[in-house]
Design goal:
It is elongated and about 65 Å long. About 10% of the residues lie in helices and about 30% in strands. By secondary structure, it is mainly beta. It has a domain of about 170 residues. The termini are far apart. The strands form 3 sheets. It has a 13-stranded mixed β-sheet. The protein has a two-stranded parallel sheet with strand order 2-7. It has a two-stranded antiparallel sheet with strand order 3-4.
């Protein structure tokens, strides 16, 4: 069976709620029934076939073509199957995702992967603020699964993060990992101010030296055996992280946030010259 494909006919002036178009809700529905589904578009309702050309029949493999930044809630609470977005996506991409695979070929808006529970969510472009965070008023953000971002992310990535893995190939904005409860965030690029603000537990892995607050203690250099094992779990991903298992083991560890429980850690990868300097110092001590 060919993938169930929605090709946008035109761009709307108002935002569109795409939450009804997920694999588990469309299972066993005919194309006629799918076409008659009404989507919220600003203050009015719009039929699916008024907005999209529909083709294919496999509702467990959904493709959205010509997607644009006003299509919100794509993949909301996805519980099975695979969804692929060819283009950009709006806010709340993959919100509350429970299982399956969700892929955005371009950039997405704010609150992507917010309160995600499981599955694999991939963003080939950039992500807005509050990636994997908790919704306003809630105390737990991302609770499981894997988020991979090939571009940059905005502020408050992983805010209130409870569990899971967030992999960012680009840069992260201010307050990355703020109020983090547990889980792992890895950032290959640079990070902004107030990294790990009010972290309780969890791990932030960095390739570049961050600007840390005084409430993080320098715990020295360490060779951590679990890191190659962790990165080996990423080898199946189409990502730069898949190539790091052999090189990411020697780190400089910072413990904090001491203004909170102080059980979290920031691990910064040591470059070759830093490793050699540490080895020489140990040899002559």
């Amino acid at each position: 069976m060919s993938a169930l494909t929605f090709s946008a006919k035109h761009e709307t002036a108002q935002r569109v709620d795409m939450s009804p178009l997920v694999c588990q809700l469309l299972k066993d529905m005919s194309l006629a029934d799918i076409a008659a589904i009404e989507l919220q578009n600003g203050k009015r309702k719009i039929r699916v076939d008024e907005l999209f050309d529909i083709s294919g029949e496999d509702s467990q493999d959904i493709i959205i073509n010509n997607s644009y930044a006003k299509l919100d809630f794509i993949g909301k609470e996805l519980a099975s199957g695979r969804m692929t977005v060819q283009g950009e996506a709006g806010a709340y991409f993959g919100m509350g995702m429970k299982s399956g695979e969700l892929l955005a070929g371009g950039s997405v808006g704010l609150y992507a992967a917010c309160e995600m529970k499981n599955g694999l969510l991939t963003i080939k472009g950039d992500a807005g603020d509050f990636l994997g965070a908790a919704l306003p008023g809630n105390k737990q953000g991302m609770k499981g699964g894997t988020v991979l971002v090939k571009g940059n992310v905005g502020q408050r990535a992983g805010d209130h993060m409870r569990r899971g893995v967030m992999l960012i190939e680009g840069n992260a904005g201010d307050y990355c990992g703020s109020r983090m409860i547990a889980g792992t965030i890895a950032v290959m690029g640079s990070t902004g101010r107030f990294l790990g603000y009010a972290m309780q537990r969890g791990t932030i892995l960095l390739w570049k030296q961050p600007q840390l607050s005084a409430t993080f203690n320098d715990c020295g250099s360490h060779t951590l055996a679990f890191l190659p094992i962790l990165f080996k779990s990423f080898t199946s991903l189409d990502s730069k992280f898949a190539k790091e298992s052999a090189t990411f083991n020697r780190v400089r560890r910072f413990g904090g946030d001491m203004a909170e429980k102080g059980r979290a850690e920031v691990l910064v990868k040591l470059q070759n010259e830093e490793k050699n300097a540490a080895f020489s110092a140990a040899s002559f001590s």
